[in-house]
Amino acid sequence: MFDAIVSAQTLGTALDSVGVLVEECKINLNEDGLAIRAVDPANVGMVDLELSAEAFESYEADGGVIGVNLSRLEDIAGMAESGQLVHLELDEETRKLHTRIDGLEYTLALIDPDSIRQEPDIPDLDLPARIVVEGRDINRAVTAADMVSDHIALGVDEGDEQFYVDAEGDTDDVHLELDREDLIDLAVGPAHSLFSLDYLKDMNRAIPGDAEVVIELGEEFPVKLHFDVAEGHGAVTFMLAPRIQSD
Amino acid sequence: MFDAIVSAQTLGTALDSVGVLVEECKINLNEDGLAIRAVDPANVGMVDLELSAEAFESYEADGGVIGVNLSRLEDIAGMAESGQLVHLELDEETRKLHTRIDGLEYTLALIDPDSIRQEPDIPDLDLPARIVVEGRDINRAVTAADMVSDHIALGVDEGDEQFYVDAEGDTDDVHLELDREDLIDLAVGPAHSLFSLDYLKDMNRAIPGDAEVVIELGEEFPVKLHFDVAEGHGAVTFMLAPRIQSD
Amino acid sequence: MFDAIVSAQTLGTALDSVGVLVEECKINLNEDGLAIRAVDPANVGMVDLELSAEAFESYEADGGVIGVNLSRLEDIAGMAESGQLVHLELDEETRKLHTRIDGLEYTLALIDPDSIRQEPDIPDLDLPARIVVEGRDINRAVTAADMVSDHIALGVDEGDEQFYVDAEGDTDDVHLELDREDLIDLAVGPAHSLFSLDYLKDMNRAIPGDAEVVIELGEEFPVKLHFDVAEGHGAVTFMLAPRIQSD
After folding, report:
1. How close B140 gets to chain A, by Cα (Å)?
2. Is residue B216 a contact partner of residue B187, using CB atoms and an 8 Å limit?
3. At what angle do helices C135-146 and C197-205 cross, to 10 degrees?
4. Which of B148, B171, B176 sits opposite A103 (nearest CB)?
């Protein structure tokens, strides 16, 4: 069984973080909250979302799994006005999800979970560098890099104790340096990897400007981006595989 | 003759209600105000607009009829800044409408009224159910229904004393129930009819969110939607023919 | 050498006035400020921009010339948040322009100035009529004229002491009259010329609504539009060649 009430904004923000990577996903209706893990079709970007029962006005579940069309569910959350609640109730028999917003009921057909790409195991990497930065600085870097290139290097300068972002275009270059003063926190270590800008742009769209984002980075290793949602009652982890260095 | 001054906002709002259905229309320049009746080319949706002389800053007319291109006239009203007045003056000789907004004069060529589709007779139906609802609730229902279907059922549950909206899609359904508490007023009666969502979406665009909309409804009968404009000095009535029930 | 710091807004506004006419331009890095002169490929519209050293937070230059892609430089200025400064520094050796906004560095490849269309000599015409008007009145006239025609007549009625704008379409006409009361200043003289609306629309986009615009006008002569930018520390002059009268 599953019966929960949550603010439309909390639901929307949480779903958006998954929706930037995949169109359909499995939602684990655990006793202590929702959990979603998904990987994009090219196996390059992964997301792990946890939304604990405390993020909800009320929450009851007993461990089932449902498959949903994410953009549908995001549209439903988007119909609510600011401050409105969404009531979600699973009808086990018909395999439909009843959603209610102040008298308006939307009955969402579920997708057979077995038809959805398998949930990835997000590897527990021990990455040598750890940077904590505001979401808006990621946005600045990604926006600027997008003007010149389709890939982006993230790295740490151990000597100068700086986190840097590099994008090299055919004619123009973009370079961002953030030192301890600009960052919330920094643990230096050998780190420099190249990433596809398309994926980072998608992930960036899901990162609130005022979020504290923990970046874990290594040398030619995947990057992990971690931030809280739902006032600390939820957490999102993105993982992005590196591109082969072009030179 | 016709010589009138009206706020750009009043003129714009009034014309928009007709403009959602037709591109050209006849305007009756009656002594006591403007009147427009029009029907869309498929004879499915009708509109009846009355804008009394009290809605104008000044108004003089003697009963003529002019044919206008509505989007042109809406564009003219749209050029005004908030609070500006539009001066409309008919030149009988040249058959042009002179419009002036603070020194800017736009001379609009009129259309031969005989070349415009005939004005419909809006039937005086005696519909058994009457619902009074806020414009924003119509907007919610239409927006949600549009996510799943291209038609929509409006009806009244006489037992539960509820007005309901139903849209059934291939996989998902939308259902809105409004009881006496949610409605401004309700007179129950046997009522359930199916309508094209395209037309209701167009009509909805012309309904202010804070308008009190009177809905008159029957069983497999047209629906009438009635609301005031121009602070009560104008009135719009839409009528929409039902679709054949699909099942 | 060239090393300057300027508010992103001042830089953006100044560049926009040139960017509406050409994609690439030469920038003269004079000791007392920047100067740009450019003419569009059809030799119909010209612009002369001067931005004095006082418009900058700091400014050092020794008379060189660089060639830039304007939309690139406008995009860079556009990346800044309100109130942020842009640091511009020329690397003579690599012929690149280093731009920095709060830790973010964008390295812009320059264009060989010899490959850019030659700077025009803006003729020193002695035009008989001089009108001073608010930028927003030019916007009103251009917006309205655009609804009916692709050309526009500007003129002065010497008897009525009025500045007027005329646009004649196939069916509709637009006419704007501004007398001494509506204008900031007026020196009458014989003036009536026809212009391409496309060019005036582009120039209008670069004119702030609250700018005082000096219009110099004659009979079948080019029009000059002059206004200040950067709080008086910069000046833009547009010149537009007349069209042959169509009748």
Report:
1. 8
2. no
3. 140
4. B176
- With an 8 Å Cβ cutoff, are C174 and B103 in contact? no
CATH topology of domain C2-113: Proliferating Cell Nuclear Antigen (3.70.10)
The structural architecture, per CATH, of the domain A2-114 is Box (3.70)
pTM of the model: 0.89
Contact between C175 and B105 using a beta-carbon 8 Å cutoff: yes
Contacts of C105 in chain A (CB under 8 A): 174-177
Q: Mutate which of B104, B105, B107, B115 to test chain C, going by most C C-beta atoms within 10 A?
A: B104
Alpha helices in chain B (DSSP H): 8-19, 70-79, 135-146, 197-205
Q: In the 8-state DSSP scheme, what is residue C112?
A: -
Determine the 3-state secondary structure of C102 from DSSP.
coil
Q: Do B103 and C178 touch (CB under 8 A)?
A: yes
CB of A137 closer than 8 Å to CB of C76:
no
Matching CATH number, A129-240, of 1.20.272.10, 1.10.8.60, 3.70.10.10, 3.30.1330.10: 3.70.10.10
Look at B72 and C175 and tell me if their CB atoms are within 8 Å: no
The ranges assigned to domains in chain A are 2-114, 129-240
Query: Mind listing the pLDDT tens digit of every residue in chain B (247 residues)?
Result: 999 999 999 999 999 999 999 999 999 999 999 999 999 999 999 999 999 999 999 999 999 999 999 999 999 999 998 899 999 999 999 999 999 999 899 999 999 999 999 999 888 899 999 999 999 999 999 999 999 999 999 999 999 999 999 999 999 999 999 999 999 999 999 999 999 999 999 999 999 999 999 999 999 999 999 999 999 999 999 999 999 765 5
Alpha-carbon distance A102 to nearest alpha carbon in chain B (angstroms): 9
- Whether B2-114 shares its CATH topology with B129-240 is answered yes
